[in-house]
Design goal:
The chain is mainly alpha-helical. It has helices spanning about 1-40, 40-55, 60-70, 80-100, 105-115, 120-130, 140-160.
Length: about 200
């Protein structure tokens, strides 16, 4: 029994030491990632943040740091496969944040903005509709999503109806034109001025 207790105690001490080592290692990776991010070495920063997550899977904000470093590698209006992959990687990282924290406003706004930059309207609409129908969120956030969806649909409708080929101009021939008599207004009378 004493040997079993000693083994259990030794395993607990080793696990604690291992956990502390992982936490320290994760913090070193986060620090190195932050330094690389400040120096605009975003791919390197992303790798440091990913290693920090491996060492400490419960690290607060680590997934968000990964997503931000990945997003910085995406260049709007560059359709190269490498760039599109960078955008998708950043979007996936933001989605991981939202999977753990659905109410994370930073991740939500960032992924909507990123998909907008990527011109992926289907994903933008999916996110907005998902947010609008998420009853666990405050009503104000849901209402904001509905408002954005409504304005997008209005804009689409406006764009279609304002196209020249969709406009019809009705002209009447002069002989069938209706003529209306001019309206006459009663003459205004001014009070007489006293001349003395």
């Amino acid at each position: 029994r004493k040997s079993l207790a000693a083994i259990t105690l030794a395993l607990a001490a080793a696990a604690a030491a291992f956990g502390q080592t992982n936490a320290e290692g994760a913090q070193k990776e986060l620090d190195a990632g932050a330094q690389a991010f400040r120096e605009r070495r975003f791919a390197e920063a992303e790798q440091h943040f990913r290693r920090a997550l491996e060492l400490d899977p419960e690290g607060k904000d680590t997934r968000l740091l990964i997503a931000r470093a990945a997003q910085q590698q995406y260049k709007p209006d560059d359709a190269s496969p490498e760039n599109v992959a960078a955008g998708e990687r950043a979007a996936a990282a933001y989605q991981e944040v939202l999977a753990k924290e659905p109410a994370n406003e930073d991740a939500y706004k960032a992924v909507v903005y990123l998909y907008t930059q990527m011109k992926n309207e289907q994903k933008v609409n999916e996110l907005l509709l998902g947010r609008a129908n998420d009853f666990s969120l405050p009503e104000g956030r849901r209402a904001e999503a509905f408002t954005i969806l409504a304005s997008k649909h209005w804009q689409c409708s406006h764009d279609v109806t304002e196209k020249p080929e969709n406009k019809a101009t009705e002209t009447k021939p002069p002989d069938k034109a209706e003529t209306k008599p001019a309206e006459t207004k009663p003459a205004e009378t001014k009070p007489a001025e006293n001349k003395q």
